[in-house]
Amino acid sequence: MMKIVYGLMAQNGDAQELLWDLGFWESEESAREYLNTEMANTRGITVEPIKINDPIPVSPEEIEEDEMVACSLCGIEYNREDVNMTDYDANVCVNCEPEYKENPNLHVI
What does pTM read for this prediction? Predict the structure, then answer.
């Protein structure tokens, strides 16, 4: 799914260059407001639409950011990003993973 956002472009010879490090805006009005307030003394910068591939939309109910996962080795709960749940038969946290790689027969809780 294509999505349109707005970015700032600078004229660079015969081409325009995206000022990507300044970010993107959801609306043309918000990009123009930034340009007029934060960059009022600059010249040659314009607001242009940019087409991007939008990721598959996920409803907020499907996001489980607050859900914690317990490590099968130490029993401590971590954020999902800090526990490897795909490469092993057990849930292994970042702290236990180096030792578990060396000895996968460690006792699982």
Answer: 0.47
